[in-house]
Protein 1
Amino acid sequence: MGNNLSMFEWGFCVLAALGMSGTANRSWAEDASQAPIDIGTQKQFFVDDEIIDKMENVFRLLNQPVKYQDNPIIELKPPQTVMGDELVIVSGSVIYDKEERLFKMWYEGAPYDWSHNVVAYAYCRDGINWELPNFGLIEYNGSKNNNIVFHRGEGEMAPGVFKDPVAKDPQRKYKMIYNSGKGVGIAFSPDGIHWTPVPDKKVAKVSDSPNSVLWDPQLSKYVAHTRSNQETRVVLQSESDDFLNWTTYGVIMEPDEKDPPWNRQFYNMEWMSYEGVHFGFISVYHVPGPGPWWDKVDIQLAFSRDGRCYCRAGDRQVFIPTAPTPGEFDWAMIYVMQHPIVVGDEIWIYYVGFSGLHWATRRNEWQGGAVGLAKLRLDGFISMDPGGSGTLTTKLMTMSGDCLIVNANATYASIKVEILGADGKPIPGFSKDDADPITGDSVRHTVTWNGSPDVKSLKGKPIALKFYLDRCKLYSFMFQTAQ
């Protein structure tokens, strides 16, 4: 289920819409106690019913990102022998440094016996053609001719690295959490290359999977996700005000009775803060069993509006699937790298792919480990799709913009937007008959009525939007201040 429309997809839309149309909540037009939601100029998504009042013949669709055609983009060569001393890539973090205009990556290099894992550094300007510099900092296998920046002489590192946007100490501009053998440790760096660990501080007692950590602007805290083993593998959230002293918030993502028995192991959840919503990328381990999915790992999508309460998106469907053909670098397992990056009008999702199954090395089999890239259109996680034609009405809201911007693919037909008043009736000049049809595919359609985009007269007033959708995909909307 990609981002581009097809005749097959339209057929699927029609079938699915038959069972998924209807009312999201009791209409505000029928319930005067529902106060308007003040959205200001914040972008609005359709991952849940937060902004939706009513749907007719419309349903949500999870959209999968498109894998880059020249994957993998980083693969350590020459190929390694099973149980050898050479390295493969097993996890990592990636950022775009706006100050230096560089993509930067910290990846975990691992030998197949998982005995001396390291953190190595790569960079590039285009996000595709990566360079592995020779720093000469750390000796590995008798040589310093490598790009290794952190090595503790232990097993799995699982580094979560980021450049701190609120750092006050220049010596701690870059921050890392990693598996230290005695819990999840922390380290600081002024440049992302020279690292200093803090041995007496721990984020969590244990984790043996990829770790993620970021500054959360909504919570105004550093937030770390690590794996916790209970009866099943679950995602644990820890929080800190200073990156030194951590408290355990609790389990934020775990399987439940709606998950099939073979889908109840969550290795980790990378995440990103995106336009006021947190999106999580869950690594779901499918335990060995009688099916094509056995002993594999793929990605599901989750979201949170407060940074603590996460829900599954897209009815628990696969967001990033493993490759269909044995032998492909990501045929068996996929782990998203921390964290996806907005590049122009796309979201770039870097991930580590494995061609061998989860327990391959225990069977003395090749497992692989290389970096791939998948691209998603801006705001493209979830779309609202009609079963042919349908309508979506928002809840009552107030806004502070001058024009309405819609992210939608209306290549095959059109969208019209009607603006309703607090009485549920079309506002004169903004009715369906006044609305100019939106056609084509754009992440920034400017909505017009009788040729004009001006909605300044509606600022601060209770309004609702009614979308008339015809064979299209609606991703998001926002009221924007004129430039």
Protein 2
Amino acid sequence: MLHLIKLAVGCVSVDDLAEWQARRARTHPPLRHRTRSTPRRAGEILAGGSLYWVIAGFVQVRQRIVAIMPDTLDDGSPCCALHLDPELVPVQLRPAKPFQGWRYLPAADAPPDRPQGMAEAQEGYEAMPAAMRRELAELGLL
């Protein structure tokens, strides 16, 4: 199994990504991310791979890739569509430096899913700003 990793350019939080994707899925279904380059290792990705999103300098969430299809950009040029499962799965935060496009991410190097634990169960967790949650997670306090 192989994954992809990509910067969520312009998104400041997981909620921001979710809102953007919900809008896009309503106006241009199905939920997909378009990219100019087609992954040559598509078979490995479709064997259970996910797209890991880097948001605000950290890998924060992943989405399962359900299909990889040829597509066309709004200007008519060819591209590739990564069809995504709508579920955003939180992962353990991991810093990531900026890069362009997408990169392959071997399963062994992918951050594990973040268990829903005591932090999420605490009163006020959802009201806490995303930046504060991220800082506390970096310090190992969440």
